[in-house]
Amino acid sequence: MKTNSWILLHFCVFILLQITCSQDPLTWKNIDCGTEAPRVGPNFLTWEMDHDFTPSGINKRLPENQPLDEMTTLRFFPNRMDQNCYTIPAYKQNLQYIIRAGFYYGNYDGLSKPPTFDLYLDGQKWSTVSTSTIGGPIYVEAIHWTHGSGSIGLCLIQTRNGEVPFISSLEAMPLWTHLYLQMETNSTFTLLNRTNLGGNEIRYTGLLSDEKYNRIWTSGSIPPNCKKVSTLPDSTTPTLQNDPPKLVLQDSITSNTSDPIILTVDSPLNWTSQTAYLVLYFTETATRPTIDDTRIMDIEIDGRMMYTVGTEINQCKVVTLYPVPLVGPTTNIKLAPSRLSTLPPIITAIEAFTRVNIDVHNDPPPPSSAASGDNSTSGAWKRFCVPYIVFIYISSAIFMF
Ligand SMILES: *[C@@H]1O[C@H](CO)[C@@H](O)[C@H](O)[C@H]1NC(C)=O
Ligand SMILES: *[C@@H]1O[C@H](CO)[C@@H](O)[C@H](O)[C@H]1NC(C)=O
Ligand SMILES: *[C@@H]1O[C@H](CO)[C@@H](O)[C@H](O)[C@H]1NC(C)=O
Ligand SMILES: *[C@@H]1O[C@H](CO)[C@@H](O)[C@H](O)[C@H]1NC(C)=O
Ligand SMILES: *[C@@H]1O[C@H](CO)[C@@H](O)[C@H](O)[C@H]1NC(C)=O
């Protein structure tokens, strides 16, 4: 009896340590801009203060607390002459990162005049941010490769008189599992859309989270000719392309009739990129009306036939389309039943990115100086964890016999 509970205890410790130690979140940087104290969020992520990462700007707290704590404070940059940049430490290796900057104006200056300004990522024009007095936080996110420089530079550049740049949050997640395999390592891809069709918004929720990379899957509205259906997450493929969370895969939309499903993806204002990277996720319902039914879809982008995909029960299909030429500010994705299909089209989730133009060189900001590598304790702890588990395991075994 005593031995049994001893084994059980050690087994629990073992599992707990394994869960804790195998998590990537220990290597993420979550920066709450403008805050006066570090804090641990509801999903156990640690949000750091930002003063170590930028030499300029002024902290500000919004008059009202926001649902997401990191949006309650911000840092604004009234002086155009300053280097209004952040230097985020990164691992000194060739590594793919998710970089996400968050902006919530909240009328912090009492002027009801939300600014528009530019963002530069590692010296390259990344995006124009147009903030608003309506709606929630705005996020600008990219898949970006660091090339061993040991840091990532983000600069905020004023482009209009009297419109002062600000930032509310800044996050950097190294992808220890290489995702989005067709993206070239010498390019940066800005996220346009990541939508969980038929389901709720999915975010990282803590150690056992289904979303392991801190991506945000927003909840999509259901087109009028469609309805929500439950679908079965994949149980056969060990790792699906881009590792979508199971919670995203368990709901989909299907059209009521044999009409096509039409999805639209908007590009930001004045977007100049010519090339998109689209990922479509397809999961099938648990059962089909009859055993002979088939669901085969033709995928058309802006009227051009791109791909044909057939779904299978208990299997998730991931279709990556790249490079896709962008012809206008709105991209239309049409899923039409193919001639041989007996069932209407279905879709589970979409992701859309655009490749950041490499040749845009309109007055880039001065490169950031205070670059430093990351010798973070969290990385060290991760390396320490595995031997520690082995040690506990072996020592308990020795103790018992
Ligand atoms: C990026 O790499 C691809 C091949 O992987 C190459 O064709 C392309 O010219 C490169 N682009 C730049 C800007 O270096
Ligand atoms: C499709 O089905 C949903 C749910 O059954 C319904 O709300 C919607 O009105 C239908 N749309 C059309 C065009 O029939
Ligand atoms: C993202 O895609 C969904 C599905 O097509 C659409 O409802 C939503 O409006 C899109 N968002 C943007 C910003 O394009
Ligand atoms: C887009 O470009 C036009 C003309 O170049 C300019 O007037 C407008 O302010 C720009 N919009 C944004 C959001 O930058
Ligand atoms: C990190 O550690 C390595 C080896 O311990 C050292 O060579 C390097 O200078 C350190 N980097 C920083 C930024 O402290």
UniProtKB/TrEMBL annotation:
Membrane-protein topology: Single-pass membrane protein
Residue ranges constituting the Malectin-like domain according to the UniProt record: 31-354
Intracellular or extracellular location(s): Membrane
UniProt xrefs under InterPro entries: Malectin-like_Carb-bd_dom (IPR024788)
Transmembrane in keyword set: yes
Pfam family membership, one: Malectin_like
Chief localisation class: membrane
GO cellular component entries: membrane
Protein keywords: Membrane, Signal, Transmembrane, Transmembrane helix
Region forming the signal peptide: 1-22
PANTHER family: CARBOHYDRATE-BINDING PROTEIN OF THE ER PROTEIN (PTHR45631:SF44), OS07G0107800 PROTEIN-RELATED (PTHR45631)
The protein's name in its UniProt record: Malectin-like domain-containing protein
